[in-house]
Design goal:
- By secondary structure, the protein is mainly α.
- It is built from 14 helices and 4 strands.
- Helix 1 runs parallel beside helix 5, helix 6 packs antiparallel against helix 7 and helix 7 packs antiparallel against helix 8.
- Bound molecules: fe (ii) ion (2 copies).
- One fe (ii) ion (FE2) binds next to helix 4 and helix 5.
Length: 368
């Protein structure tokens, strides 16, 4: 085993060679250390309360799936075996492509346009992969630091869910895309903050409300947009799990936040607000713009102006704002700031659309 320690996340694209079959001895691990003053907690009362957290734990076990066998990987060829797209397929891909009409994109020839489409998918899927790794690390911290028994069991089951998510996105980018982008700065900052903060409940808020909300918004948006049946299928499975994770966070935090002092609550609310700002401003594929030689600031402004991430942001706020309200973090301190962002109206949504127990309990539809 070779481990190479680095000071920060790599900034280069990684290309996969389909011909190479690596053994454990060939793999060179690139690891970045983070330090965290994690306060762990034993729980010495093994009484099991028959509550919503226990029910979620049972659901997690019942709705387990296998990334290797429950996804129809063979429905589409792997990237290195895929035939060149037919002219009608090219037209399908490029008509209505959201960057049409942006001068630097219009200046591309067809091959460059197709490459851009592929890079955009690679960037997004790479962020899913990096985000899932972050979720895996945070969920494992929660198993250790959550103070109550059911929450520990639940966090352990979530840890396994997140491991499957890392597995399934990793396999998808390797087999269907062929290369990955490095983690984007905004996502890395959010993960660093959540993983290294010493307050366990802030990890909970950061992970179960903000990151899971982000994940759900991004996965739903991508599932609506893609016409790849493999990606649709695996996103269906992942979304089912993430909806349980958010529900866990909301149910647990609803009771916990009520025990905090006003100042503590304001600190948590400010953190959630800052995370929303990062999500709005810094989860943008600027590395793709850079790769294609675009002026990054200009392209970012064009993206905002054209509302290219509007669906994602609407889905994000439609989840995060009602959930923050429900757990008591839409405080007087942050309300005006959310108002200024123009997203306070979302508080009137009854609840996050993914917290629907009937939906959560539905058996997995592995054909669809
Ligand atoms: Fe996940
Ligand atoms: Fe999750």
């Amino acid at each position: 085993m070779h481990i190479r320690y680095v000071d920060g996340a790599p900034r280069r694209l990684e290309h996969f060679d389909p011909q190479v079959d690596l053994t454990a001895a060939d793999v060179a691990h690139v690891a970045e250390i983070f330090r965290t003053p994690l306060d762990g907690a034993y729980n010495w009362d093994y009484h099991v309360a028959d509550d919503r957290i226990r029910r979620l734990y049972e659901l997690g076990k019942e709705l387990n799936w296998n990334a290797a066998t429950d996804v129809g990987w063979g429905q589409t060829p792997d990237w290195h075996a895929a035939p060149a797209p037919t002219p009608s397929r090219v037209e399908e891909l490029l008509t209505d492509f959201p960057w049409n009409g942006y001068a630097p994109f219009d200046a591309f020839d067809t091959q460059q346009k197709l490459a851009f489409v592929r890079h955009e998918v690679a960037w997004a899927l790479s962020q899913f992969l990096h985000g899932e790794q972050g979720a895996l690390l945070v969920a494992s911290q929660l198993a250790s630091c959550a103070p109550s028994f059911n929450a520990k069991l639940y966090a352990a089951s979530q840890t396994f869910d997140e491991a499957r998510h890392v597995e399934v996105f990793n396999r998808y980018v390797r087999s269907k895309v062929g290369f990955t982008y490095p983690v984007t700065g905004g996502l890395k900052d959010l993960l660093d903050k959540i993983l290294t903060d010493e307050r366990w409940d802030l990890k909970f808020i950061g992970m179960q409300i903000v990151l899971e909300g982000l994940a759900l918004a991004a996965f739903h948006t991508r599932r609506n947009e893609t016409d790849d049946p493999v990606l649709k299928e695996l996103l269906y499975l992942v979304i089912r799990d993430e909806a349980r994770h958010v529900t866990f966070g909301v149910n647990y935090l609803e009771e916990f936040v009520a025990t905090l002092s006003e100042q503590e609550r304001e600190e948590r609310a400010e953190f959630a607000y800052q995370a929303c700002v990062v999500s709005r401003d810094r989860l943008i594929g600027t590395d793709v713009f850079r790769y294609f030689g675009w002026d990054v600031d200009h392209a970012r402004a064009a993206l905002v102006e054209r509302g290219l991430n509007a669906d994602f942001l609407n889905m994000l706020y439609a989840r995060i704002i009602p959930n923050l309200k429900r757990i008591g973090l839409l405080t007087d301190g942050v309300r005006p700031k959310f108002e200024e962002m123009g997203v306070l109206d979302f508080e009137h949504l009854a609840t996050d659309g993914d917290i629907d127990w009937r939906e959560l309990e539905r058996p997995l539809d592995l054909e669809g």
